[in-house]
Every structure is written in structure tokens, then in C-alpha cells.
Amino acid sequence: MSQLSGNNGGGTPHSKAREARRGTKKIHADSGRNSGTENQVIHRRAHPGSKSPQPLRGFKETLESKTTQTKTQIYQPASLYWYQGSKIPIIRGKSYPGESIASERLLSLAQKLKVTIRQGISTDQPLIEQDSTFSQISENGQHSVHNNMFHKASNFQMDGATFNTAGGNISHTVNNYYNEYEPELLKVLDKLNPATKALHDVGARSTCIEGTRTEILQSIISWAENTSPDAPAGYWMCGMAGTGKSTIAKSICLKLEEKGLLAGAFFCSRQIEECKDYHRVIPTVAYQLAQYSRDYAEAIRKVLNLEPSIALKEPDNQLKKVLTKLWKGAPSSHTLVIVIDALDECENISWVLKHLIPAIKNQEFPGLKFFLTSRPEQHIKDYFDVDEIQQEEQTLQHFYLHNVQKSIVKDDISIFLQQGLGQMSISQDKMDILLERSGVLFIYAATIIKYITGGGLRAQARVANIIDLKRTPDKVETQVLDDLYSQILEEVLSSSKLSPTEHQQSLRIIYTVITTATPVSCQIISELLELALEDVQATIIDLQSVLYINQSNQAVYGFHASFADYMISETRAKNLYCNSISHHSLLAKQLRIWDVLTGDTIGKPFQVVEMVMSVAFSPDGARIAAASGDVTILNFSPDGTRIVSASSTTVMICDANTGAAIGQYYRGHQGYINSVVFSPDGSKIISGSDDQTVRIWDSSVQSVIYEPGQGHQERVYSVAFSPDGARIVSGSSDKAIRIWDASTGNAIGQPLLGHTNEVNSVALNCVRLR
């Protein structure tokens, strides 16, 4: 504990000048009962609008007598004191922990409850006991009066004014703001060169909307308040790009601040030079911690006097000299929390984590916890190895934000969209579509809100733009996401990290992930591209902010569809653009066979000259047919003797053994044929086309049996027979499914609706429809 200290006598000329500027008045309170005693000198700010000092509301003071026997109760229950230049917020015995005295809210609350107490006091005994007595200096500079100033108060530190308890009712330390008598200390601490722009209350940072992220926030606060010796000292929240990590971190800072538990914060940002400099992290944390402990601040002063350039040293040196060792010598009376957000946005953050994380695991910061957030990038994940953490009895708690149940995230995003677009008359079905588009990506929802509300009178038109699937989004609509994805890719594909060959390999891997119709494993990608498995895995690991490996089937998935949309748009992705048709051609010049049980390839790939558009097994599994060139789709007959195929607007049949054409082409479609298949008995063929029709053909005489089935409003992508051949089902880009009678060609009932996007594939089960 520090000692109560001050200047002797009536004050220096400088202090008197300061008193004059504050508008203070002297109160000479003589005692009629002890007229021979020295007068006590107390300065108090005049009550606004009064000619003489007035008692403060809720301010209990007993200053009638100024004898050595007088006991003065000054800080019970009172408000907003200024002692020796230190600002101490207390309202009726309750503090506003962690809140700056400069806060407009706090100043407003205390506007009429201000008092300035200026006393020339000097004592060698710290105030650490209840009813502690100290010497009072009179105007002639003599020690004459002993006062009990802090009735029923305990464990506080006056020089710099850190309160732990007062009247038994303040449970947390109030920020220590150094007073005007300590410019030297402030000047020395400034040598830490803190990154002020990295503090949580500097700049505009979003917070969680009321009612969202409630379980997550409560879980983190519960961890922070857990004072058990076995409680984890660290908490790492990991989340993919755009999942709202920084918003949660800011909200946590505010909640911790309200509870008096926030010791400091560092919000990393690649956009701000000082916020991405790994040298600034530890010094900035130390600078903020110095506001909480006078002893710690004094210890840092000594270190900085000996080594003033510590802020320029490497993190291991900084950690040892200004954090680990010094904090042990000045622990807090309660647990405090340091928040470090967006580790992935700080350059060379590994140099910090390499030393900080082991120190956290080893409990080297008594009374101090660390809450950290980042994307799931491998160079960061390496320091938070889950297996190792589990073995060490959870000295570091971890939480994967992107693994939160999708229904919970969607509920939160729904509230977020309703809050952001609540002033607009958007129908519920349109809000549902916006919610569906957002998926589990908060940044996507935020982009939608910004785009729509920024449209002014065009807002409703912008809603329609987003809902229109056929429309290519404009730059204003996608700017935030474009910046996010381009930044991630530039970092991963940086020429400082990859050779030109590795750069091209990585792009081909990304293109393959986003263009394969069905997600495939790293093993299959390596075989398709004829690359080493390690090269594929390295790229996927580097891109864990936007891609992930499903643990159940080991397939690689994109976290959100917006990443693929970005990559296949030349105007958005620019030099990283993926030409999906060209890449499909690259992949399609090989024909491969896989074991359906293991997913392993069987044998070597079949090489073909042109792009493979479609493949099919014979019914007995002995042969494979592949469509390439201008043949886009094919299928075997049920007996395996014939193959039906389509090219542009025509259908043809060939011998499965010789490949020779059987009969003439089937003509009649006016648009590109997307699907063609035999009936179960082989007597009929059906086809679906861009001309919005379904046609039924006789497989033996090359003629249409019935008039084209009409009913779809857009192109037909897929057709199939029921197992008994009595029904036909079709799917279309009009989002509808239709069922047809195979014996008449007529539609059965109304179209089946419900899909929000085009229907690409259909099938009927074995149950006969009625």
C-alpha cells in the first residue's frame, strides 16, 4: 500500500494558483470548546449558485470541532472526491468501477455532488486499517490535529487514489488516475509508448445488439468472475472471418468495465500501424495495468529509468521485465481481465504468443486473466493446442465461435436484421430470404443492412436487388465482403510467403474447392490436380478463415457461399478470379473411379482429350461411359446394351458394346438438353431442356410419343422415372418440381413448391404415387 502524502504547510504558489482556478474557498472551523487549538484548513468547491459553501446531498460531515479529539467523517456516504488531484468516483458508498472520471455520464450524475478537499498532509504511516488515524497539518505547518477521515473504510491507497472498499460497500478497484503532483511518473510511464488507438474505448467499435450473443457473453463473464484457484487463466475465442469476434470482444470490455474487472485491452488492426505492431502489445498492457496498482507503477518506473528503450525490445524481454516479475510483486485484491482482440491482425503475433501463452498456462500472473480472440489461423492455433490444453487441466479455455449451433446464430442474426432494418416496411418473406442469405455470417448481415439503409429512397429497390438471384451484385453492395476476402487472400498468397509456383498451385486448389459440385477431400483434390497431398493441406490450413474440413467425411467446405461468389466474379476478385468453366475443363479431362465406401481412387485416371461432361456405370458395373466434346449427358439402358446421350438440342442412342449409333437423332427440343434417361423397362426415353419442356420418346422408333410436357416457367434441369416407370418427375430453375403421367404425358396435380433456388436434381423412391 502507498502512503498518504502531500505538500507541507499552506501549499506552494503553484498549488495556490491551482486552487484559485478551481474556485475553492477556505473554511476556518474554530472550536469554541478548544479555542487554543490550531485551525484545520479544508478547501471545498463552492456549491453552484451559492455565495457560501453548502452541504452536499448525502454528504455526512462532522467538522464542528477542530481539536485533537475531533473525528471527521468525510467519505461516507459521499460523492466524487478530488483528493491531492486524484479523482475518486463514489456514489453513496457505491463505486462506478473502471469508469473514467471524464465520462460524461459519471460527471452528469455527480454534477451537484462535487467537493474539493485540499489538505497539507504528511505522514509515514499508510492508511490500511479501519478508523486509521493520521497527522493533520495546520496553517503554520505544525502537526497538531489527528482525524479519523475514513470511518468504517479499509484497504485503500490515497496517493493516486485507488479504492478497494469504503463503508464496506465498494467491491472493486476504481481506476487510478495520477494526480497533478506526479508529472514525473507519468512522463516515465510514457516511455512504454502505449498504442492508444488499440484501447477498446478509442474509435468506433460495434457492440452486440441487445438480446443477441447472450449465452456466449454470459459464458465469458462467468469465466472472468470465477475466482477458483483451478479456474483457467486464459480464454481463447476462435472464429472464422465475419463471425463477429470483435463485436463480442468490445461488448465483453464494457461488461467487465461495469463490474470493475477490466484491466486493459488491445484491439489489433491491420489498418492501423500501431495496432498491428507486435512490439506494442505488452507495453500497452503494462501501461494500463499501472493505472490499477501504485506499487506496480512504481516498479515499472524503476525499470524504465534503468532501461528506457524497453518498448522497442522483443516481447520475451518485455514480458519478463515489465509484466511477469513486476506483477507478482503487486497483485490486485481481486481478479482483473486483459482483453486482446484479433490476434491474426497483428503482424508477427507469434513472437508475443510464444512467451505469453506459456506464462498464462503456468499461472504466472496472479489475479490476472487474459481473454483473446482470433481467426483459426494455424500459426495462432499452434499455441492453443486443444489436446495439450486438456492434458493441462484447462489452464486455457477455448471456444470455437463458428461451431455454435446454427439455429442459435440464425436467431441472433434475425434480431440483428430486424434491429437494423426495423424502420423499413420489409415483408416477412423478404426478411426470411435476407436471413437465409446471411447464413451464419454476421458481417454479411451487416453488409446487407449498410447497403439497404444507405440507399435512402432507393432502399426498397436495393432489397429487391439482393433478393434477385439472377442479378450480378454491384460494388456498393459487396464492398465490405470484397475487402475482407481480398485481404485474407493477399495475406495467404503473399509473394513473401510463397514462390510463384506455390502461388499458382494454391489458386488451383482454391478453384477446385469452389467449383466441384460435391465437396471433396484434400486427398481427392491432390489427385485431381496431381499435387502432393501436403501442398493441398498447407493451402487449406492457411485458409481456415474461409474454408474448413468436415471431420465426418474429411471434405473441404467453404464457410459461406459469398466466398465462392467473390472468387468467380472477375470484377470483384480481379487477378485472383476463377474462371469456373475453364477450371472445370481442366478437371474434366480426367476420368476417375472411386470406391464409394472408402472414398479412395481405384487405379489411375483415364485420360481424355476433351472435357468430360458426364459419366455413368453400366448396370452390371463392368463398364464406364464418359461424355466429352459436344456430348453433355449420357445414361445406360437398364439391360446395359444401349447408351442414350444428348448433344445440344438432339438425343441419340448408340450400341454400348461398339459405340455405333443406332438409328437417327431424336430432334424436337428448341433449347439445350440438360437431362436424358431410359425408362426402367427401356422402352421410353425422357429428356428435359432449356426450352422449359419435358419430352417422352419411343426408344425403338426415334419419335415423340406424346406432346411436349409444358408447365415449367423456366429451363428444366433434371428428369427421372419412378422405379415402376409409371411416373416422371422434373426439376427446374423456376424452383418447382412437377410430376407427370408417363402413359399420357400429362402433368399430375400442381407443381411442388418450397425451394428458394433452382432445382438441379430429382429422383422418385419406390413407393407408388397415388
N- to C-terminal distance: 87 Å
Q: Quick one: biggest sheet?
A: 5 strands, parallel
Radius of gyration: 37 Å
| Main sheet strand line-up | 12-13-14-11-15
Number of strands: 34
**Average pLDDT, all residues:** 75
Number of helices: 22
Structural class: alpha+beta
Q: What amount of the residues lies in strands?
A: 15-25%
Percent of residues in helices comes to 25-40%
Low-confidence stretches: 1-181
Tell the overall outline. elongated
WD repeats: 666-707, 709-750
Domain Nephrocystin 3-like N-terminal: 212-375
Pfam families: NPHP3_N (PF24883), WD40 (PF00400)
Region (Disordered): 1-58
Q: Care to describe what's here?
A:
The chain has 770 residues and is of the alpha+beta class. Helices cover 29% and strands 21% of the residues. It has a five-stranded parallel sheet, sandwiched between helices. Strands 26, 27, 28, 29 and 30 form a five-stranded antiparallel sheet that branches. A four-stranded mixed sheet has the order 5-4-3-6, with no helix packed on it. Helix 4 crosses helix 5 and helix 14 runs antiparallel to helix 16 (475-492). The model is unreliable at 1-181 (pLDDT under 50).
